Fold:
Amino acid sequence: MWIIYAALSALFAGVTAILAKSGIKETNSTLATALRTIVVLLLSWLMVFIVGSQHTLSTLTLRTWVFLIFSGVATGASWLCYFKALQLGEVNKVAVVDKSSIILTLVFAFVFLDEQMTGLKFGAIALIAVGTWLMIQKQPVQNKAIQKSWIIYAGLSSVFASLTTILGKVGIDGVESNMGTAIRTTVVLIMSWLMVFLTQKDVQLKRTNKRELLFILLSGLATGASWLFYYRALQDGQTSAVVAIDKLSIVVTVIFAYLVFKEKLTVKALFGLLLIVGGTFFMVFG
Structure:
C-alpha cells in the first residue's frame, strides 16, 4: 500500500505546481506560500479529527515532539534559504543546487536510517541525479549583480530539505501519520509567515488578486493531500523508495504544463525525464 500512497503523493504534488503557477502571476510567491500553508494546516487537522487520532496527541513522547518540530523547522529554514539564494543568484543555478536535495536524502537514509543500498540503487541515484540536472538546466541568464554567497544559501536550502524528510521519518515512528503531518505543518505555518514578515510582503495581502487567491487555495488543498499521502507512505516504506516515487511528481507537472500552459520539453529535458523515471524504477524495485 505504501507504493500507492507514494504515487498519490506524487500526483497531488504535480497538480500543486500547476495550481501554484496559476496563482503567482501577480501575487508574490512568498505570500502565496504562506497563504497556501494555512489551507494545508486546516486540511491536516481536519484529517486528524476525521480519523479520530486527536487523542494520540497526549501520548506523544518528548522525542517524537522534538523530531516533528525540527522537521517543520527544517522545512521553514529550507524555504528561507531558498528565497535568499534566489535573491542573490541566477534562478537556474540556484535550482540546480536546490534540486540536489533528493540525492542528499537518499545518502542520509543510507547513513542514518541504515536503509540497504545495493549497487543497483547506487546506479539509480546516478540516473536520478543526471536526469534532474538535465531537467532543470536553462540558458544562462546575464546578471551583473550576482553575488557569490548565493551558493551558500542554495546549499543550505538543499541540506534542510533533505533533513526535513529524514527527521520526519524518525518523528512519525509509532505516530499516527495524520497527527504527525498536522504538527509538522503547524511549525511550517509559523516559519512561512515569518518569511513573509521578514521580506515585508504582508503589505501586499490586501491587494491579492481574487482569481489568483482561488488558485492559491486550491494548491493548498493539493499540497495538503500530497503531504498526507507522503508521510503515510514514509511510515510503511523505505525512505529512499518513497522519495524516489514522490520525485515522479515532475512527470505529472510536465503533462499538465503541456495541457494547460502549452509548455514543451526540449530533447535534453525529455531525456532527463526518462532518466528520472528509469532511476525511480530501479530505486523502488532494485
Observations:
- DSSP finds twelve helices and no strands in the chain.
- The chain has a mean pLDDT of 78.
- The first helix runs from residue 2 to 23.
- The radius of gyration is 18 Å.
